[in-house]
Model the fold of this input.
Amino acid sequence: MLTTRIIATLLSLAAVATAVIGCAIETGEAPAQKSAEMINVPTLASGNSNAVAIYHWEKATCDPYPDLYEYWPLSDANQDDYAYDMWWPRPCSGRVIRKDGNVTFILTARHCVTDNGLPDGPITPATPQIPHILVTSKLAPGVLAATETGGRVQTTGVPTGVLAPVYFQDYAKYGDIALLRADGDLQPPQPAERRGIMAFSDSESPALVGYSILRSSGYGRATEGSCWEHQNSGAGQLRTASGWEVTALNAAKGHFTHDLQSNNSAAIAAGDSGSTMYFLNIAQGWTAIRDIGVNSSPTVAYGGTLLLPFIQDAFLRVFMVSLDKLSTNLVVGSAGTVGSVITQNYSESTYKTHANFYRDTGQLRLGTYCIRDEGAGVTAKLRACTSTRVAWTMTVPGQIKNVSSGRCLALMDDGVTLWTTTCQANSTTWTFTADHLVL
Done:
């Protein structure tokens, strides 16, 4: 059993403190190991719109004293791993990315919803007969009642929450990331926010390294430890922190490493697995949130270049919106026919607004047609995807550039119509969302 530990104190612009714990995973082939969760210290979140606490049943083993085993292997019987089959006392974390009435879709780490707590493990059942994944958005749902003796834990409490079976996952393709579907009221203190999905082309991915400031929120521990001493760990209470930056990215595998900036002292610990790493857009008054991946360990998150493809595979579409309109009910759309002008004044979920951005071809589609660069200073239109000038690259900040012409896809002065024009530092920045409406 690997040690997971996250402790973070945050000195951010928001002056919030947090901690997170986890097991390190390299940026090459990520091993199938039990990974991180998040711990937050010392300031609790004062509100919650999108964070989710995920309680799950787990069948695994625990070594309560892994650091001592090498030196005193015979001095304490508790040094050996022990097996358990029970509700895990401390929740994992997740993030609401789409909401249809009381139907909520939650992004999290795959290992949070496997029987053995490993990224490649069998999915935990969540049915009315075997309700082994329950979720809530309460600020402080807490730790389940448990008996802890000699480093061993036996959960006696049962969580309350909404049943949330796994809706989509593909470990071979996307690694330690999963999507849950919950049918019921998660009881968040505030209405959920529409969040952006940070997308960028593989060729632009090196620019992510050093990009800052990464933020996160989760229900993890506020003390060291992993599989014991849950009751006074501070877990089960939402906290938030910032201060990380991306240090390396594996574009093919979709996972990236992150570390603290030199002027911050945050960290990641046990219980925050599944919480998203995200960026706030400064130009939009710190309101435009773009998720970039989910925490898998203290220094590794999954998503990156593969976060948008994962969500597109799950829902078969996303929605495109300029960052400055992310907090509105507007998305990009068209009449849905060849030659249609592209505008950002739609608020529906139909073939007219269903978008997909394909990282292999660079095609940006609305329905079955592609957005085409029609020329400098000319409105963009839908064309057959076999046309010229239908391949685009997306930068880390969110500009969309045509591969052939180098021009940017931008909003005209009317703030509605899309055209292609010379790229400027202030050219329109874009993102994608899983929902066409503000949640």
The chain has two domains: 5-310, 317-433. Residues 63 and 80 are 6 Å apart (CA to CA). The domain at 5-310 is CATH 2.40.10.120 (Thrombin, subunit H). The first helix runs from residue 171 to 174.
